[in-house]
Structure formats: structure tokens, C-alpha cells
Amino acid sequence: MSTLxxxxxxxxxxxxxxMVKLAGVGHTHAxxxxxxxxxxxxxxxxxxxxxxxxxxxGKTTLLRLLATSLKPDQxxxxxxxxxxxxxxxxxxxxxxxxxxxxxxxxxxxxxxxxVTAVLAGRLGQWSLFKSLFSLIFPLExxxxxxxxxxxxxxxxxxxxxDQLSGGQLQRVxxxxxxxxxxxxxxxxxxxxAMDPVLASHTLGVLGREAQRRNAxxxxxxxxxxxxxxxxxxxxxxxxxxxxxxxxxxxxxxDELTALYANEQLEHAPSSPAAPPPQLNIPRC
Amino acid sequence: MxxxxxxxxxxxxxxxxxxxxxxxxxxxxxxxxSELDLGVLFDGSNADTMGTFVSAFWxxxxxxxxxxxxxxxxxxxxxxxxxxxxxxxxxxxPCALLATRAMSLSALSRGxxxxxxxxxxxxxxxxxxxxxxSIPEIVWALLFVRAVGLGPTAGVLxxxxxxxxxxxxxxAEIFESVDPLPARALLGTGASRLQAFLYGVLPQATxxxxxYSVYRWECAIRASVVxxxxxxxxxxxxxxxxxxxxxxxxxxxxxxxxxALVLLADLLSRMLRWRFA
Lengths: 284, 277
Known about the structure:
heterodimer; A: 284 residues; alpha/beta; Rossmann fold; 2 domains; 6-stranded mixed beta sheet; 3-stranded antiparallel beta sheet; 9 strands; B: 277 residues; mainly alpha; MetI-like fold; 0% strand; globular
């Protein structure tokens, strides 16, 4: 028996460095509105996490902080073992190639063809010459076809983005991130424009992709059932704070009620001329 | 009262009235200072002079020899305009990329506002574009005719310099006017600024850029004609000669040629816009 080959060791599931680490992170919008305060969060490699919470709770801000498209005002943010805002600009751009953000309304130029929009996911890894050439004669078309095929959109390869419906456009945005193949997949309401069946199917595709490559997946969702169905870990956000952070199996009905409780809506029918909304007082 | 908003005065009335009055008040001194007097057009001897000049326009000159000359001059004019535009584009595109706020990396995490030092770095380029376009092409043409002698080279250089300034400024503004989110999303996935420009901004800006460039090319044709009068070649130089010889028919033929050239530019622009916008 050959001793050259080491016996296959069980994969070390617990990686020393968490993929995402937030310590006391807060963010205030330019208008002075506090979006997030004192967020502490650790997410390991390969975890699949859903962020739920009412509108305006700070879900999008949290995802944009993780995508390094916003700089936190307070606290420490660590992504893939690096602190993005202490890095030099070029090193930060390199770090960004490993992070993919799926936007709720994918920002795609209306006249761009689907093939180009998907291939743009890997620009960070391409040379300038290659991207210039691919703009005219798309290279690596097979990669785009594969990514689109998993979302049942392969037939739209040569369509223009403005010829697609909202749900199709969202799937093109997802295909771009699938093609980018990042270590950290962030998704901001990725299925909001799809019907329930398609939404569930698409989240399944995203989840399997993350599992296959052992990537970390973080998605904000409005539909609680979808979150509970597809994600093992659920984070509830309200008024810029983390209300709970639990396995999906441990979420109770009361917690969801507290998360989505809305005093203003309850009072709304009784008095049509409602007083202006009061300042949100943090409940945590 | 059905709608309480209707009962109140339109809050914009007063300011709009003031602006209208101000515009009228500024117009009057303008007319006085420029000494505009339409009466001279209908003054007896002036009208006669113009009349004889214009009456000589018919019939337009169409002898074979002259048409050959005209053909050559037209080609030269087109060549001056096109070569000048090509040179101008070579300067304008890099300058526009440097001057535009659309490709700012520092703006990415600051809600679209670049850092102050990044803004300061754009000012020298903006300044250069202002200098390039603030001196009229005819002045450059006079300068270059002295430097490189009579002929099309002076016209090409004059157009290249002035139009680089104009194109650079307008391109930079077009880049800033398109939706910035696609480019920002690409910068967020680690793309370089030039890559984000190519995949995020350019697809949205092509139509407007093409249409403006073709319009500028049309302007360059006209400018090269004007510069011909100071010896920079092309149709203008030919027209200068014909006017000096009071050959109205030749002038008429050349004006018709202009008309055809401008029509051609218009058709081209419409075709490109239909394809790209």
C-alpha cells in the first residue's frame, strides 16, 4: 500500500477566519438618519443566512456595507479576513472581485446585451484588453450560457436588457454573480419581482451554488416563508439593530410578530388624518 | 372649497414674473450695444449692390472644368473636417475620462460625491479643455497659416485644437448624465475604472456621443470653409477666389454643395441615432 497518498482527511468545517465579522458597526445616512447601530455579527465560510425585517429596517444598508459600497461610520468590519477600509485602493478592488452583490433592481445598461451583462461579472479578473475585445466579440460565451441556463434564461443570451421583464432582469443579475463566482454572495431582495414558484426555484439555485463552492450566501428577503425554507440561519433586523439571530428551526411565531409589529398601521384606519410619524425609538 | 391647494397662490408666480422682466431688461441694452439696425438692408444703394450680387447667382456654374475643381475642393474640405475631428477625438476622449466625475472611485462609498482632492485633480484637465475651446478656430487657423504655410494642414490643426476642447467638455458631461449605478455596481465587483466605463457608462452614452460628434463634424465642415478664407484650403479658399472675381454662379454652386454636405451629415446622424439610441 502506497504511503505517498495521505488518507483523505475530513474537511475542516470550522475555518479560523470568519468570512464576515462586524463589531459594533453603525452607519448614518447623509441626511442624518441612523440606518444601523451597534451591529455585531459573525458569519463563517459556507453559511447561508437570510436577513428579514420590516421595510426601512436597515437590511439594504447592511448588505451595502458588506459589499463595501458603503463605509461604516462606527465599528470594525472584516470581510474574507481583511479590513477593506484599511486596504489601499487597488487591494480593495482585488478584495471586491471576491464579493458579489445581487441588486434588487439590477443596474444594467438598457441597451446592453444579456451576454455582455453576464460576462461583466468577471471584469475584475479580466485584463483591460480582454474586456475591450469582449465588448465587441463576447469571449467565454459558454460561461454566460451555463450561468443563464441554470436560471432557465439561456435563450435570452443575445437579447437586450431593456427587452426583458423585471423578473427576467433580476435573474440576469443573479446569473452575473453566478458567473463571477465570488466567495461571498450578497443578495438584496433577489427574487422580489418573481412569482412564488420561480422565486423558490431561484433561491434554490443560489443556495445550491453556494453549497457547491462552499461560498457564503447572505440574502435579504421580504417573504418570511422563503427565508425559513431556504436558509438555515435567520437574522431579524428592526430599526437598525439585530433583533434575533437564530437557526431557522428555532424561529417562533411570536418573534416574527414582534419583528413586523407596526404601531402606526394598527392605528391608521381609526384616524385618516394621522399625525406625522414619530421618531423611531430603538427597541433593542 | 374642493382642493385647498388651489385656493393658495402659485408660489412660483412672483419669481417667474421677475425672471421674465429681467430677461427683457437685459435684451434691450444688447440690441443697443450691437447697433443692430435693420433699416440698412432696405437702404437704396445697399439693396442694389446686394441685388446685383445675388442676381449673378443664377445659373449656378456647371462647366466640366469647374465641377472638377469643385469636386476636388469638396473632398479637401471633407478631409480637413474629418482629419481634424479624428485628431480632436484622440485628445478629447482621454481628457473627458480624466475630467468626468462619473468614474470616481472615491465617490463609490460616499453616495456619489467624490472626495475633495479627487475633485481638485480634475480641475487642471477642465482648465485645459476650457483653454482649448475658448480661442476660436479662426484665430488658430491664422496662427497656423503663418507657421506651416497656406494649405489644409493649418485647417486640420485649428479644428483639432478647438474641437478637442468642445468634445472633451461635452463628453465629460454626457458621461455624468447617464445612470451611474451600472458603473458603480461594476466598480463594486472589482472592475477597474476603465472597465466600468466600457461596460457601465459607454453602452448608455453611445447614442448621444455619436449624435453630438456627427453634429460637430458638420460644424467642422462649416468651420473649415470659413478658415478657407484665411488660406487654410478647401471649399472656402475656392469660394474666396470666386467672390473676389464676382463669379456669382460659382458661389451659388458652392453654396449648393454646402447644402448637400449638411444634408449628408444630417442623414448620417439620423441613421446612427436610429441604430444606437
